[in-house]
Amino acid sequence: MGYNAAPLERLIEQFAKLPGIGRKGATRLAYQVLSMDKEEALDFARAIEEAHTKIHRCRVCQNFTEDEICAICTGEARDHSVICVVENPRDVTAFERTREYRGLYHVLHGLISPMDGVGAEQLCIKELLARIQAGGVKEIIMATNPTVEGEATAMYVAKLVKPLGVKATRLAYGLPVGSNLEYADEVTLGRSLANRGEL
């Protein structure tokens, strides 16, 4: 620990904070940054700073955007009667890759997980209910991961929207249980979307 210069050690520590990056990986990344020329390194730092200062949540769907309302929510070719409810913004990217889905999205920014101290009130559920109450929504697709937390969240949201006269469906199980939507291939994800069933 003590043989690295202090700024290098701080850089390693920052990389090590990222999920899935251990001390070895963090060290490799830090040395990679040091091998960049100064302009490249500053571009890298600026990209991180810009991502943090310019990106925020869409006022409607809670996905990340640079604008007040994201391009998907304002897209005229999108079907505004269907909302696909996902755990995080990475899942929106996964669905968009399938090119099968033309509706809108809603990002919860997490799942109900009592073990981790995450309750429904910490998720973007009230924003979803406000969208439904505004009218025009016929179906919500619960596209949370097929895990215990994903199932619990899907059932909870479905129970809330049913009295509002909206159909709640769940992705079909073309997706292996315990898997992550982010890593699913386009065909599997597209098929599970097409074969969704009512909750």
TrEMBL record:
<dbReference type="GO" id="GO:0003677">
    <property type="term" value="F:DNA binding"/>
</dbReference>
<comment type="function">
    <text>May play a role in DNA repair. It seems to be involved in an RecBC-independent recombinational process of DNA repair. It may act with RecF and RecO.</text>
</comment>
<keyword id="KW-0233">DNA recombination</keyword>
<feature type="domain" description="Toprim">
    <location>
        <begin position="81"/>
        <end position="176"/>
    </location>
</feature>
<dbReference type="InterPro" id="IPR015967">
    <property type="entry name" value="Rcmb_RecR_Znf"/>
</dbReference>
<keyword id="KW-0863">Zinc-finger</keyword>
<comment type="similarity">
    <text>Belongs to the RecR family.</text>
</comment>
<dbReference type="GO" id="GO:0008270">
    <property type="term" value="F:zinc ion binding"/>
</dbReference>
<dbReference type="GO" id="GO:0006281">
    <property type="term" value="P:DNA repair"/>
</dbReference>
<dbReference type="InterPro" id="IPR006171">
    <property type="entry name" value="TOPRIM_dom"/>
</dbReference>
<dbReference type="Pfam" id="PF13662">
    <property type="entry name" value="Toprim_4"/>
</dbReference>
<keyword id="KW-0479">Metal-binding</keyword>
<feature type="zinc finger region" description="C4-type">
    <location>
        <begin position="58"/>
        <end position="73"/>
    </location>
</feature>
<keyword id="KW-0234">DNA repair</keyword>
<dbReference type="GO" id="GO:0006310">
    <property type="term" value="P:DNA recombination"/>
</dbReference>
<dbReference type="Pfam" id="PF21176">
    <property type="entry name" value="RecR_HhH"/>
</dbReference>
<keyword id="KW-0227">DNA damage</keyword>
<dbReference type="InterPro" id="IPR034137">
    <property type="entry name" value="TOPRIM_RecR"/>
</dbReference>
<dbReference type="InterPro" id="IPR000093">
    <property type="entry name" value="DNA_Rcmb_RecR"/>
</dbReference>
<dbReference type="Pfam" id="PF02132">
    <property type="entry name" value="RecR_ZnF"/>
</dbReference>
<dbReference type="Pfam" id="PF21175">
    <property type="entry name" value="RecR_C"/>
</dbReference>
<dbReference type="InterPro" id="IPR023627">
    <property type="entry name" value="Rcmb_RecR"/>
</dbReference>
<keyword id="KW-0862">Zinc</keyword>
<protein>
    <recommendedName>
        <fullName>Recombination protein RecR</fullName>
    </recommendedName>
</protein>
